[in-house]
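User: Can you recover a sequence for this backbone? Please restate the input before giving your answer.

Assistant: Of course. Working from this structure:
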């Protein structure tokens, strides 16, 4: 194969270093010659998109087109990438200057030559313990010297599973209480006379699917009309219910049914993408740059931020920055494995993309209450013990402390010092007090912070309906000027419990963030005219 490689002048691609996948098979074969490999390249911005732009009011950017003109890829950069790679024999599948992406494809022997790597076909273990067959690489990538500083990421060559769904199916004997999403919304006083009308909500899914019959039966049982739900395929993926061996249909239906029950008049679009770093990025980017622009993007998938390459983590964070610039609030589950996030080194870790400062990180509680009255009798940090599920949270080693968290009392991280605190907010997540849903023809109870991300996305849609605007990066408004130990307006504080390394207390904490929402009070905070 090496004798067929073109002569190239390559330079290292910063941040592309990748470790071996966990439990990777000892016997490895090269990917069959001629196999088609696709990848997503991310290009530099034509101008920096600083957070100061996100704080402009009103929403700084009116459309993806304006975003592209100000902060997308320079057309000359796109042209250089297309011409350079095309001359080397790679196929240019698509280009999108606004989102700074170029999709390429070619036979494996050419692709590996151009990007200075070797791809093997392996079997490895995911963090959930499942086996996965995939292309695999280790070490750093390279790029043609002409593209040095222009291409910032090359994603998808190694197509190992990049994340897992943050949901847990309750065992029937363990359920002490269960609620419909509508009842949970009542516990949290979602604003009256709102249903998400006029709003669009995007959901990112990296597996699984939904059947229309499940939705019709479920919403009919709640006394609601079935909401408008459409599937959008990304990078060859599609809505495929009943075919995911890891049971991702549970994630998909949980997300749709929570949003559809709490914002039934919203337009819901579900973006199905491969569970790879490229698929994740492409799904979020496609959702952010869609028309109409969604008011929220809900993400219930993730993995320890340490299990991402720096290039992939930075690319996805930048895509969520694009979303915020377009007025979109990205909600992300903080993880279901407490302060370790399934790491085995005995240290605290946080989940990404929730650890991005451009995502509203959603932690979990155990909620007990009287559903007939809408009153809460007890709410504590979700923690069912080691390996049994707990609210993810802690301090990021990858992202610095954002300005709006400086007074919140975020502790120092174990790694770098002052890091972004996770989560920002919380909601009911314990499967033992979980959500009644319908999956593949079966009624069941599901929990996890996967339920909290769509819960908050639906709340954002109802708040936007009432105020007539989206909230983009909403954290500055939520944190305000609240100091450590103080309860933030619009929240009910959760002060009991722990997630392993961190304990709940007054004000923000690394278990449940600022607390759980008081929807009507939040509306008053975000739109004083309504109170």
């Amino acid at each position: 194969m090496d004798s067929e490689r073109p002569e190239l002048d390559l330079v290292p691609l910063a941040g592309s270093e990748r470790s071996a996948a966990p439990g990777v098979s000892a016997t490895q074969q090269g990917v069959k010659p001629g196999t088609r490999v696709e990848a997503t390249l991310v290009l530099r911005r034509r101008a920096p998109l600083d957070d100061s732009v996100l704080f402009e009011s009103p929403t700084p950017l009116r459309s993806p087109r304006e975003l592209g003109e100000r902060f997308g890829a320079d057309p000359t950069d796109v042209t250089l990438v297309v011409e350079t790679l095309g001359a080397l024999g790679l196929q240019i599948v698509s280009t999108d200057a606004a989102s700074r992406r170029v999709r390429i494809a070619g036979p494996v022997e050419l692709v590996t030559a151009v990007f200075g790597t070797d791809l093997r076909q392996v079997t490895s273990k995911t963090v959930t313990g499942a086996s996965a067959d995939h292309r695999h690489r280790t070490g750093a990538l390279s790029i043609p010297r002409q593209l040095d500083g222009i291409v910032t990421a090359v994603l998808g060559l190694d197509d190992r599973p990049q994340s897992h769904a943050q949901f847990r199916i309750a065992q029937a004997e363990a359920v002490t209480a269960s609620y419909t999403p509508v009842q949970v919304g009542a516990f949290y006083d979602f604003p009256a006379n709102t249903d998400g009308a006029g709003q669009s909500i995007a959901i990112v899914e990296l597996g699984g699917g939904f059947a229309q019959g499940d939705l019709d039966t479920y919403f009919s049982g709640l006394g609601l009309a079935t909401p408008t739900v459409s599937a959008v395929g990304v990078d060859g993926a599609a809505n495929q219910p009943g075919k995911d061996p890891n049971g991702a249909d549970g994630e998909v239906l949980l997300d749709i049914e929570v949003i559809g029950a709490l914002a039934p008049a919203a337009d819901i679009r579900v973006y199905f993408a491969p569970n790879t770093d490229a698929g994740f990025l492409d799904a979020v980017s496609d959702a952010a740059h869609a028309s109409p622009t969604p008011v929220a993007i809900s993400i219930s998938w993730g993995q320890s931020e340490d299990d991402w390459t720096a290039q992939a983590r930075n690319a996805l964070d930048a895509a969520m920055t694009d979303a915020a610039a377009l007025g979109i609030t990205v909600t992300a589950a903080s993880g279901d494995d407490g302060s370790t996030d399934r790491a085995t080194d005995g240290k605290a870790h946080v989940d990404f993309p929730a650890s991005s400062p451009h995502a509203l990180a959603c932690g979990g509680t155990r909620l007990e209450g009287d559903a007939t009255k809408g009153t809460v009798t007890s709410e504590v940090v979700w923690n069912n013990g080691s390996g049994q599920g707990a609210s993810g949270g802690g301090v990021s080693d990858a992202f610095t402390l954002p300005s709006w968290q400086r007074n919140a009392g975020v502790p120092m991280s174990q790694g770098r010092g002052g890091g972004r605190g996770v989560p920002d907010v919380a909601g009911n997540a314990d499967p033992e007090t979980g959500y009644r849903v319908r999956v593949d023809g079966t009624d069941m109870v599901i929990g996890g912070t996967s339920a909290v991300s769509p819960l908050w996305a639906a709340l954002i849609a109802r708040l936007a309906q009432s105020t007539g605007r989206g909230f983009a990066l909403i954290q500055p408004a939520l944190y305000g000027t609240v100091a450590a130990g103080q309860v933030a307006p619009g929240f009910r504080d959760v002060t009991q419990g722990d997630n392993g390394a961190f304990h709940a207390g007054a004000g923000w904490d690394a278990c449940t963030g600022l607390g759980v929402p008081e929807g009507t009070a939040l509306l008053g905070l975000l739109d004083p005219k309504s109170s």
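That completes the design. The mean pLDDT is 94.
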